[in-house]
Amino acid sequence: MDIPSVTIVGSGPAGISAALYTVRAGIKTTILGASEGALAKAKEIENYYGFATPISGSDLLEDGINQAKRLGAEVLMQEVVGIKEDETGFIIETTKDQLHSKVVILATGSSRAKPKWQGIDEYEGKGVSYCAVCDAFFYRGKDVAVAGSGPYALHEAMELLPLVGSVTLCTDGKPLSADFPSQIKIANQPVDRLEGSPMLSAVQFKDGTSLEASGLFVAIGTAGSSDLAKTIGAGVSGGDITVDSCMRTSVPNLLAAGDCVAGMKQIAKAVYEGAVAGTEAARIIREGK
Predict the structure, then answer these.
(1) What's the pLDDT tens digit per position in 54-71?
(2) SS3 of the chain: helix, strand, coil, percent, to 5
(3) Are strands 29-32 and 74-76 parallel, antiparallel or unpaired?
């Protein structure tokens, strides 16, 4: 099996910029992209160098991906649901496959979907969690809920099952987009609020029913870079991944760039940080670290 030397999670400006440097350094590079992100919604971009007339976000994204492909990067449209370390580097779990890589660059942006339920902010750290791998141990033997309805929610629920007493999926009325096993209960009612004092103890639905739960794990939409970073113990502060000047996280050979790290949420910054991360990834591979 071919093992990608560098896997980049994210096909936006930071991820593509990193790929341009790793591919041109002769490093086998795989880019994983699941969605176009916020940039694709931009109608006109006027504040990025090199364009005499405005360019749309979707065109800029498409041009970047085509550029990376032309240079030899492999681009796979697969959603990443988890990352684990092994003796050779990392195992990247997607909805379709598992990839092995020596170096991983996280570049999926900063968005973290959160339900607009009453109490969601108040119970963070008091029953509300965003990382099943990180916090499942604290709920061993207890009944918990997972907020979500897709592959990311399925991944988090499966991480919880071996340790907790029961897992109930709270879809908030959204249709399922993954195949959940029978061990996972499904609650399709729209959610109204969370309750408990001082810790979370119940999820209240708008139809007047409730679900007893000691923990709620939020896994709506797709996993963002900070979510993936937390699963393998990388430092995160205020939703941003903590990196050094070379875009290295606290986990060896795990890098991050773009909107998922602190600073301006701008294309120019993402491209610069991607270049730094790509250069550092190439150095790690060449030096055999």
Answers:
(1) 999 999 999 999 999 999
(2) 25, 25, 45
(3) parallel
Strand partners, 82: 93
**What is the value of pTM for the model shown?**
0.84
Please provide the CATH number assigned to the domain covering 128-218.
3.50.50.60
212-246 core/surface letters (b: 16 or more CB in 10 A; e: else)? ebbbbbbbbbbbbbbbbbbbbebebeeebbbbeee
User: What is the per-residue pLDDT across 17-34, written as a single tens digit (0 to 9) for each?
Assistant: 999 999 999 999 999 997
- The CATH classification of domain 6-112+223-287, taken from the options 1.20.120.80, 3.30.460.10, 3.50.50.60, 3.40.50.720: 3.50.50.60
Is the previous residue joined to 162 through a cis bond, with omega within 30 degrees of 0? no
Helix, strand, or coil (residue 63) = helix
Nearest to 12 by CA among 34, 45, 27: 34
